[in-house]
Amino acid sequence: MDLNKLKKIKDFEWEIPKSGEMRVPGRIFASEKLIREMDDKVWEQTSNVACLPGIQKASLAMPDAHWGYGFPIGGVAAFDPDEDGIVSVGGVGFDVNCLSGDSKILHEHGYTKRIEDFEKGWEKENIKCSGNGTIKSTGIINFMKLKPKNRVFRIRTKSGADIIATEDHPFLTPEGMKEIRYIENSPISLYPFEGVNYEEPSEEIILTEDDVKHLDIQAINWLKKHSLLPLKMNNEKIPYILKIMGYVLGDGTLYFTRGKGTIFFYGKKEDLEKIRLDVKEIGFTPSKIYSRKREHKINTMYGKVEFSRTEHSFKTTSRAFASLLVAIGVPCGDKTKQNFVLPSWLMRARLWQKRLFLASLFGAELSSPKTITKHGYNFYSPTLSMNKKKEYTESGRKFMKQISRLLDEFDIKSVMIKERDDYVNKNNALSIRLRLLISSNPENLVRLWTKIGYEYNQKRTYLANAAICYLRLKITALIERENIIERIKELRGNGFGPSGIYNAIGSNVNLRFIERTLYGARKTHTRIALNFPTFNEFLELATAGLGQNGQVWDAIVSKQEVDFDDYVYDFTVSDENHNFIANNMVVSNCGVTTLKTNLSLNDIKPKIKQVVEALFQSVPAGLGRRGEISLSRSQINELLIEGAPWVVKQGYGTKEDLDYIEENGRVDNAKPENVSDLALKRETNQVGTLGSGNHYLEVQYIDKIYDEAIAKKFGLEMNQILVSIHCGSRALGHQICTDYLKTLADASRKYNIPIRERELVCAPINSPEGQKYFSAVNCAINYAFANRQVICHLTRNAFKKVFPGSDLPLLYNIGHNTVKIEQHIVDGKTKKLYVHRKGATRAFGPNREELPKPYQGVGQPVIIGGTMGTSSYILVGTEYGDEKSFSSVCHGAGRTMSRIQAMKTWRGDRLVHELAAKGIIIKAHSFPGLAEEAPGAYKPVEDVVDSVHNAGLAKKVVRMLPLGCIKG
Question: Which of 66, 578, 734, 891 is catalytic?
Answer without folding.
Answer: 891
